[in-house]
Amino acid sequence: MDIFNRIFVCGSLVSLIACVPTVEAAEEPPTAPETKLAPNKISAETMAKWRAGVPSWYAPVEPFRIIGNEKNGIYFVGTEGLAMYFIPTDEGHIVLDGGMPDQGSYVAEAIRKLGYDPEDIAVLINSHAHLDHSGGLAELKELSGATVMASEGDRSALEGGFYLGSEQDTNLNAPPVKVNIPFSGGFSFEHGGVAMTAKVTPGHSRGCTSWTMNVEQDGKNHEVLFFCSATVAANRLVGPPQYEGIVADYRKTFAMTKDWKPDVFLSNHPQFFGFKAKREKLLAGDPLAFVGNEDFPKFIAKMAVDFETGLEKQSLKHNAIMSE
Ligand SMILES: [Zn+2]
Prior knowledge:
Elements: H1 2-10, H2 16-19, H3 33-36, H4 44-53, H5 55-58, E1 64-69, E2 72-76, E3 85-87, E4 93-96, H6 104-113, E5 121-125, H7 131-134, H8 137-144, E6 147-151, H9 152-160, E7 181-183, E8 186-191, E9 194-200, E10 209-217, E11 220-227, H10 246-257, E12 264-267, H11 275-283, H12 295-322
Parallel strand pairs: 4-5, 5-6, 6-7, 11-12
Antiparallel strand pairs: 1-2, 2-3, 3-4, 8-9, 9-10, 10-11
This protein binds zinc ion (ZN).
C-alpha cells in the first residue's frame, strides 16, 4: 500500500514540488536566473533540477508495440515514469503526449528506433496541459508541422505554457504550443484509418482528456482507453481553488467513468496501469499482456476514494487557517 500511495502522491507533477525538495522555488533567491525569465521560458537549471529530482521520468525504455500489428498498432515511446504513445498510419502518424519540456527529441528518437520518421507525425494530441505530458509537444510540432488537437479547457495553459492556477510558478512552465483544433466535451477524429474519440474528464486539469480507440489483436477487437488522470496531487481544491469548479469537475469525472470497462487500460504514468509487469509478460511472449477489463474499474474506484480523502484534508487545513 505504501508504494501505491507514494506513486499516486508523487506520480503527478504538482506534488513533485513536495516530493522533490530540489525543485522548490522557495529555496531560490529572488534573483535566481529562472525567476527573471519570462513566464514561459524554461532555464537549463530548472530542467537539470527536474532531471535530478525525478530520475524515473528520464529513465529510458526501449520503444515497443503494446498491442496490434504493424499496420494497426499502439507503440510505447515513453520512459519508466512517463508514458507517451505512437500510432503510425500510412497518412502520417499520431502521437499522444510529448513528455517533459526537454523530451520532444527523446520521443522523436524512440519513433526513429521503431523505424518511422518523426517528421511524418501528422497529429499531436495531449492528455493534459501539465509539463510532464505537454512539455515536448512544441518541439515535436516544430519538427513535423503536425496539427495539435486539444481540449478548450486546457488550451490557455498549452498556448501560454503555464500551469493553470499556478501561473507564477516558473518551475511548472512548458514551451507554449499552438492548439490548431480545440474541442469541448466529446470529440472524434479519423486519420489514416485510425479513429480516436476524446472524452473530457476534467478535474486533474480543467481540460483533462481521456482518449479511446479500437485495436485488433489475435482476431479480436479491443477497446483501448488512454485515461488522463484523476489524482489530486497538489491541486488546490479549496480557498482559492486551482480553477473555478474543480471539485465539481472531479466528481463529474468519477460519475462518468465509474462504469467504464476498457479492454486495455493505458494512461500517462506507467505506474497507473501496472506497466512494468505487463511489459514483462508481453516480452515473455503474451500478445494480450495489456488486455484486462478489470484493471480500470479498480483504479478509478481507488481514485474516487483518494479524492474525497484529499478534499477532506485540504478543507480541514483551510478551516484551521481561517479560524486562526
Ligand atoms: Zn498532471
